Amino acid sequence: MTQPIPFIDLATQRDLIRERIEARLGRIMDQGSFIQGPEVAEFETALSAFSGMKETISCASGTDALLMPLMAWNIGPGDAVFVPSFTFAATAEVVGLTGATAVFVDVLPDTFNMDPAHLRRTVAAIASRGELRPRAIIAVDLFGQIADYAPIRATADEFGLKLISDAAQGFGSTRDGHLAGYWADVVATSFYPAKPLGCYGDGGAIQTDDEELAAILRSIRIHGSGSDKYDNVRLGLTARLDSFQAAVLNEKLPLFAGEIEARMRIAARYSEMLLGVAPQTIAGDVVSTWAQYTIRVPGGRRDAFMAAMKERGVPTVIYYGKGLHQQTAYRHFPVGGNGLPVTEALCGEVVSLPMHAYLSGETQDRIVQAVAESLSAVQVA
Ligand SMILES: Cc1ncc(COP(=O)(O)O)c(C=O)c1O
């Protein structure tokens, strides 16, 4: 019987580093350094070295990493934060949690990332209407590909807005050799296990070159504590990265650059071999972390395609079947002028194939063959 193909393989990497992780976990147990211990400090230093950013504030999840800067900037009721709708819920959820208004912006049909022209028009329209104060933009590095930050930064500067990179999927992605922090005030990432750099539970990190902001974020991370531990100077959270997760990340980070190279190779091979499909396009100067390899199956044939893939033992997943602006919790938030036609079209067509840094050529050949057979079975190609 042929081996079932996993959508993401975490086991191969785990087996490579298992003993070293277990030694670290044992040391934490021996020392009792469960909270803010040396593993956390080691990881923050290493992550700053990886990205060249001055400050790394590790935290409990990618969602906290997005929420905390909004809290630090006192974003709240009456404020507008511009976000794509074609993303995971957390991107807009954090805006709603502060009491501010998420304003949804469309994405581009080829890269699936925020459309800078639609963003500019939407910010200008909200600013001229005067009901909401434009305060920030959260751009998402979707499926691993860094957003097109130069024009997004220009809009942020023109309207005096903060810019957050939601790098939960694309941490480590570069454009023209620059990481997102070259343009963004803050880079927020997630270490959820399935992310390109993931731990074995929940975790996240914020990076910034702004030392003053970093001090506020460290305070928010621990209940808004002041210089005196029992004088809380602002509202905060319990948002620390725990030592066990930091230990896992300390073993995974040294592998990460090589894994991004492997993902680039595997994605290029998919793109060479897959005929008759439209994958997410990656600009020539971009290194993507390829959190997902996503194609479009048009003409209402996606469900039949996925069923045909399943029959051939290949799992596929839809990211995302509904834009956030179409979901119950977010329907009341405004969308940019003329609606979000690209987001809505993508939601009906996208489907992601198995993708991870340890995908063998042989398994990839099986997947590619299954795609070709499934497409012809549903008469797309
Ligand atoms: C784009 C995006 N933003 C934010 C998050 C939130 O991260 P977490 O699950 O660590 O809270 C995720 C992933 O889950 C994500 O994919």
Relevant terms:
single chain, 381 residues, alpha/beta, Aspartate Aminotransferase, domain 2, Aspartate Aminotransferase, domain 1, 2 domains, 7-stranded mixed beta sheet, 3-stranded antiparallel beta sheet, 11 helices, 12 strands, 41% helix, 14% strand, binds pyridoxal-5'-phosphate
Write the layout of secondary structure elements.
Layout: H1 11-31, H2 38-51, E1 55-59, H3 62-72, E2 79-84, H4 90-98, E3 101-105, H5 116-129, E4 133-140, H6 149-159, E5 162-166, E6 174-175, E7 186-190, E8 204-208, H7 211-221, H8 243-273, E9 278-279, E10 286-287, E11 293-296, H9 302-311, H10 341-349, E12 350-353, H11 361-377
Parallel strand pairs: 2-3, 2-4, 4-5, 5-7
Antiparallel strand pairs: 1-8, 6-10, 7-8, 9-11, 11-12
Helix pairs in contact: 1-8, 2-8, 3-4, 3-7, 5-6, 9-11
The structure holds pyridoxal-5'-phosphate (PLP).
Question: Care to describe what's here?
Answer:
- The active site is at 195 (proton acceptor).
- Keywords: Aminotransferase, Pyridoxal phosphate, Transferase.
- Belongs to the DegT/DnrJ/EryC1 family.
- This is Aminotransferase DegT.
- Pfam families: DegT_DnrJ_EryC1.
- It is a single chain.
- The protein has eleven helices and twelve strands.
- The chain has helices at residues 11-31, 38-51, 62-72, 90-98, 116-129, 149-159, 211-221, 243-273, 302-311, 341-349, 361-377, and strands at 55-59, 79-84, 101-105, 133-140, 162-166, 174-175, 186-190, 204-208, 278-279, 286-287, 293-296, 350-353.
- With 381 residues, it is α/β, with parallel strands linked by helices.
- The chain has two domains: 11-250, Type I PLP-dependent aspartate aminotransferase-like (Major domain) (Aspartate Aminotransferase, domain 2), CATH 3.40.640.10; 257-377, Aspartate Aminotransferase, domain 1 (Alpha-Beta Complex), CATH 3.90.1150.
- α4 links the parallel β2 (79-84) and β3 (101-105).
- The strands form three sheets. A seven-stranded mixed β-sheet has the order 1-8-7-5-4-2-3, with helices on both faces. Strands 9-11-12 form a three-stranded antiparallel β-sheet. Strands 6-10 form a two-stranded antiparallel sheet.
- It is 41% helix and 14% strand.
- α3 (62-72) crosses α7.
- The two termini are 29 Å apart.
- The structure holds pyridoxal-5'-phosphate (PLP).
- Residues 61-63, 87-88, 90-91, 140, 166, 168-169, 190, 192, 202, 204 line the site of pyridoxal-5'-phosphate.
